[in-house]
Design brief:
The chain is mostly helical. Helix content is about 65%, strand content about 0%.
Length: about 50
Amino acid sequence: MPDGLTYLLVFIAGVIVYTIAKVVGYMRESDRQWQQVDKSKLKEWDDEEDY
């Protein structure tokens, strides 16, 4: 395999790992924030309403 291709594949793999790590981090932050929400103030939505 050419050296340039090896560096490119390593770079692409790094970007994929970084992206997955960021998404997982954001998901955990979102879950933590959702647990802190005062759920008694949430509105009940009815998707069957006519507009």
